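yo, Putative L,D-transpeptidase is done. seq:
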Amino acid sequence: MNLPKLFFFLAVSLLGVIAVVAVFKKAKDKSDQELQAAKVMEIELGEQVRSLSGAGEETPTSEIVKPETIKEETRRSDEQLPTANRIEELFRKGDPKLPIVETVVYKSRVDWLQGRPAWISDYASHYKTSRHFIARSLNGKTDYFKQDVAIGDRFNVFRKDKDIAFYLVIDTSRSKMWLYYYDKGLDERVLIKNYDVGLGRVAPQNPSGLLTPLGTYKLGEKVAIYKPKQQGTFNGDKIEMMRVFGTRWIPFEKEIDGATAPAKGFGIHGAPWAVNEKGVFAEDRKCIGKYESDGCVRLASDDVEELFAIVITKPTYAVLVKDFFDAKLPGKEAK
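structure:
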């Protein structure tokens, strides 16, 4: 082989090697891009806990926080959790009843209101007790709207000589809530009832691991009652409010202690309603016990309506903790 042919052969061989290397490199880059895209999608779906900036780094399994994992970590002490259901002791006109309420007899003329007959709304204002609370006691059942009253009818109200506040302990790892009243005069707290709740979606970047914050918040006065077909604005769109907030809304108003997010935008509300498989407009109770909200605390309709009737006329605080046993409440526990 002469010299020109040898140079030609070597040049062709070199070009072939370069082409093969380029093909392998392109394939590898494509594979890396697909892997990166898959990881970003997992983050968007909440399957990973790392941030977008760390998408190229694997997170150890022990650091992946999911609701189920949190529950497993705390289940060992569940048998020590307090339980109660003393709700009827608030509304019952006979004994036993909780010491923060009293039974009154309706009269149209009262010494604290001169010049006109007294109505249910007047009793509610005088005793700092919601009309819904009075209606449930008056009717002897969970009817919060029927407020027909006649002279001699009896119903419960909060005692004027008791300075009380309510505390809602919300355990974000167990999706449960405990309702306490705190008697400031006696420096005692009493558990009234515990509830199952729904909470915010998994958000590993937050202190709670969820969209629901931690800390103590005071609940606000701008409460709302929603009924079917009632329209409102949510995220800039007109919607039927029950489809998002259920039948009741109680907002967080102020951060009190250890709050991990501003109060604005958070609250307690009912399970959302929708048309079910039978074509009936009904609440979706399946969300209770799950982590699906934008951060608010959800309750079943019966529970949120009950809670609403009790707490809206008194100072009320939501204490959100990862573990019930971390909650710091005022006063000593009383039976």
